[in-house]
Each structure stands twice: as C-alpha cells, then as structure tokens.
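Morning!

As promised:
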Amino acid sequence: MTANACIELAHGGGGRLSQQLLQELVLPGLGSSPGVLHDAALLPPHAGPLAFTTDSFVVRPLVFPGGDIGRLAVLGSVNDLAMAGARPLALNLGLILEEGLPIATLQQVLGSIRDSAAACGVAIHTGDTKVVERGKGDGLYINTSAIGQLQPGLEIHPGRVQPGDAVLVSGDLGRHGLAILAARAELGLETALASDLAPLLEPVQALLAAGLQLHCLRDLTRGGLAAAIEEIARAANCQIELEEEAIPLHPAVEGACRLLGLDPLSLANEGRMVVLLPTPQAEAALAQLRRFQPEARWIGTVTAPLAGAPPLKQLHPVSLRGALGVLRPLELSRGDQLPRIC
Amino acid sequence: MTGAQDLLRAIHASCRHPWTLMEVCGGQTHALLRHGIDQLLPPQLTLIHGPGCPVCVTASEHIDQAIALAQQADVILCTYGDMLRVPGSDGRDLLGVRALGGAVRVVYAPLDVLAIAQAHPRQRVVFLAVGFETTAPATALLALGALQLELHNLELLVGHVRVPPVLDHLLANPACRVQAVLAAGHVCAVMGDAQYRHLVAQHRRPIVITGFSPVELLQGILAAIRQLEAGCWELENAYPQAVQPSGNPGSRALLERVFEPATAPWRGLGVIPGGGYRLRPPFDQLAPAPTAGTGQTGAPARDPCRAGAVLQGLITPRQCPHFGGRCTPDHPLGAPMVSSEGACAAYQRYGKR
C-alpha cells in the first residue's frame, strides 16, 4: 500500500490510500473479510433492555507490560457494560492515527483488538479511521462504544446502595497505574509488575449466576478506588467506611507508592471493580470473585445516609479506618499525582 | 499494632502536666495525622508542627528565578515534582509555565539531570535543588558529576537549607511555646547528633531524635514526655536503628566538599544566619547567572499566606483566616497547602479539627 512503513496523511485523505488502509490493513487486522461497506451497520432486532457506553483511550506508551491500547480499548468498553450487568452485543471502533505511526504498531494493536473482542464474544460492527498531522496526536487514539443486553429486571446502579451494604474489591489495586508510570521510563522506576488489565465480564456473570443481589458495580479506572468509591457514596447519598488494612496492595505497588509519594488508592486500574451488595451475601460474593482473583477482599461498609450528617462528612462522605483504629476522611487527589521530594 | 497500643498506654500514664512538643519534619506531621495519633494522645499534650517541609520553606526568590528560567526557550528546568505547584511571589507556578510551553521536567533523583544535560547539549539544563541535609548530598553528587564530565550546559539553582540554625532561631524566640523537640530522624541519619547536643545545652529543652512510623513517633513522644516530667533536658536518640552519633560520614564529606553554610532566606521565616548552603569554589561555576527581573529588585507583593506563623507553630493551619476558604489544595495561597509534607495540606487531607 505504501513503501513507507508508517502512516501518512494520505491514509486519511479519502482516496486510494484510505481504501487500501481499510481493505488491506484494518479489516484483515480485525479478522473481518473485506467486502461491501456501508455508512451504517445494521443490528438485528432485539427485545429487552439494552445498555450503551462509550470510552476514549489516549494511553502512553501504546504498548505496556500486560497489554496495549487495543486490548485496553475493547476491555474498557466491555467492562463498562459489565458494570451494568450487561453482555456485549456490538462494538464500534474509532481510530485516530498520527502521521508517522509505524504500520507494525498499528498491526499489533489491531491484532489485540481482534483477540480481545473474540475473547469477550463480540464483533466490531462499525468504525472510522482518521489521520492527524505529526505532532497532533500521541501515535494512536482509540474510541470504542458498545451496546449490550441485560436480563430484564436487573438494576445495578449507585441508587440502590443502602446502609448495611458491604464493599468488596475484586483484586489488588494500582498495578496498571504503576506499570504505566514505569513503562514511561521517565522516572527511572523499574518493576516486574504488569498492568492488571483484564475482562470483568466473567466475574460479573459469575456473581449474577450465583443469584447475588448486586446493588452497584464500578470498574476502577483512572482515579482509582478513591475516585470510584467517593462517586458512589455521593450518588447513593450514603456514608462509607473503608478499612485501610484490608485494602489489598501488591508489595511492589505499596513500596513504589511510599518511595514516590503516590496514593495507591488513586492509582489507575484496568481490571478491578468494587462490588456493593447486602452484607449477608458478602462471603458468597468473595468466593465467586476469588475464583478469578485470589486477592479479592471485603474492604468496607456503607454505614449511614449522608442526609443530616455533619459538614465534614458532607465534604468527605468516605472515611478510612487506619491501623490504630482512627477514622480519617478519604480525600481525592487533584488528578495529577506529583512525586514528592524526600 | 500492639507495640503502638502499649506505647500509648505508657504515654497516658507518664503525662501528668500540659506539655507542648514540636515535631520538626513535615513527614512526621503527616504520619501523626494520617494514623490519627494526635487523636489518641492525652488532651493536655499539644503538638506543634515544625518547619521541616522542604517545599514550604524554599524561598520565593528561588521559585521566581526558576519560573523566569523555565520561560526561556533555551532552558530545560528540572526539579522535584512537589515544587511544580508552589506559587512564586506573584502567584504563578512552574506547572503554569509548563502548560504554556516551558520545558519543565520532574526528576526523582538529581543524578538523572546528568543524562538530560548530555542528551540536550544545546540547551541550558537547570536543576532547582531544594531540601534539607537529606537531599543536599544527592545534589553534591550531581555537582561532582557535572564537573567531572565537563558539562558546560548544566546549572544548579541551589535552595538547600540546614535544620539546626532554624531550630536555634525558633527556640530563641520568646513567643515560642515549644517545650521539647522531636528532631527529624532522616536529617540526623545524615548529619549525626553533634549540632543537636549544642542546641539542647543552649536552650535547655529536650530534643529527641525520632523516626516516622507510628511506633517510632510514639517512642519519640514518650521519651520527650518522660524528660519533661522529670525536669531534665538531654539529647536522646529514639531512632537508633537509623541514626548513628556521627551520622553518615560519606554524605557529610560530600556536603563539606561541595557546599558551605551560608545565610539564607526561608520562606515565611525570613533570613536565617547559616540557614542554607551555597556552592563552594570550584562548584560555584555551576550557579546560574541572576535572571533579569527576579531577585532582590523591588519589594515583594504583600503575601496573604500565613505560612511563617504556621511553620513556627505560632498558629495552627485552622487558625489561618484563609484555610479552606481562599486557600485550598486546588487553589493554594502558599506552599504548606501544596506540599505533601505541608501542615496545611495535612490538616486539609486528614480533616483535622
């Protein structure tokens, strides 16, 4: 298609090179047969409730220990569907390529997209490709949207959270954030740890199959546990107490956070979720989660409604109980965790 | 933590009178609040948070100069991440300079700056070096490396400060309520205890070299209370696992070779005789030339931040009229609200009343 082994502006120009990119690279890379393409994909009629989600992926570097942007883009949207209890029916793929992106990198990412989608039992139904000038993108940005089906009557959202619910995490925290920091190689940080990037579809289906009443699920992405649990507490209008000692951290994550002054609860994850459900069902849920991740833990409880709570609680609805038994408010990071000095 | 519970019981049993202690290091302040130790101590015990936050006490002159340098097209400004959000004298910070296109790099280890200077031979690579005696040896290694490798594009903007002179300054103030000092274990691990013996004798107040974990902090507090209740004042090492009386001779020799003590400005506290380090010859050739528009010219704008009073323990962060109102972690008026070791940030983060 071109003698140069990289993306050129003409690949996005709508001419012959655009055709070749699609027919010779993207479609075969995704495992689809080249054929007649139309402006819109047609989906079969479907009875029952649907879930719909979208997410954009701008990770740097594009390939990191434990995954790449392609796998991240598929699992990100499929995991978002799973948080509503849904199974994916159709996926969309938007690619924004930067001039100069090596074709080999694009092929590797397309292969990851193909494999990850297949593993989740979903196909790419529609998509789009654009090319931006060199310097206007980080190599490759991806947007995915997904449509999913869920069982009638299933209601999994923060509005169902109530005092007395248990808070579980599906595995140890912070591996993705740390792996990305290390992969950027700007900090001289070395770790053997890989990203926790993983599909959450199966663990959620296992919880549902066990007949558990899931009140709320939330995948822990950027912002980590801290952002997710605070958002749930506010949306549910409830106070939540977490036991700091119970929160599972890999020793390498704990050590690096201590060294660099990072908050492990604010580090990104890509294959972990919190589960809120009635306390009597917590042990049964943990047993299911541990089939996938032995580090799954019961880390806290929804204690009381937020209405009528003192002003400090209104400001910080989530509290952490430390090793000495003292409660302190959980504070969100500003969004840019800067390493400390000594 | 059974050890911690035993120590807490011993502290409650020993503490019969009201006492005021100062923990010097911001890392200790954060650990005390993070673990809620302040809530578990006897009510008659008051903890005052000392000036040991390196980011907080870095003079605004240095930050202004770093900002002016980072705006120059041929400069790469390197520093520790905490410094990026510290406002200079006009409220601007390095993060803002970076957002507008300035080359500002975060480093963890000063020696990383050598590689940056080698990779960008046509750029001036400036390291804003801040911190106490704990971080100064690493800057000294960088200075040695720069001269050995004959890197003519590497410059050191030195804002390093020394702890004993500022303690001397604080304890000599008649308004100072501090009756015993928990000295910062990491600084003593480098420098040893000789300077602190001198301070104990001069100010007739106990100084206890203290670590940073809950158990180490409680050990330091217990030792200080026992001395106060017994009416004595001594230098006591409650952190012997890390601190030798002679400190770390290698690091001290390195400091001696590259730096000399100098009178230096501390943000919020004023100019402290002997309170900082400057580069000795021949390392002083690494100092950047003064930048136009910064430095001593003109009176500084009136600073609304009460950091000086907080850093001396004269007020708690909550007694500052701006705390939590005009001044928050997202819109800091001063460094103690920015730094991960700042007392105001700790009060905000851990919701201390």
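Residues 9-32+49-149 of chain A form a domain with the 60s Ribosomal Protein L30; Chain: A; fold (CATH 3.30.1330.10).

Hope this helps with the figure draft.
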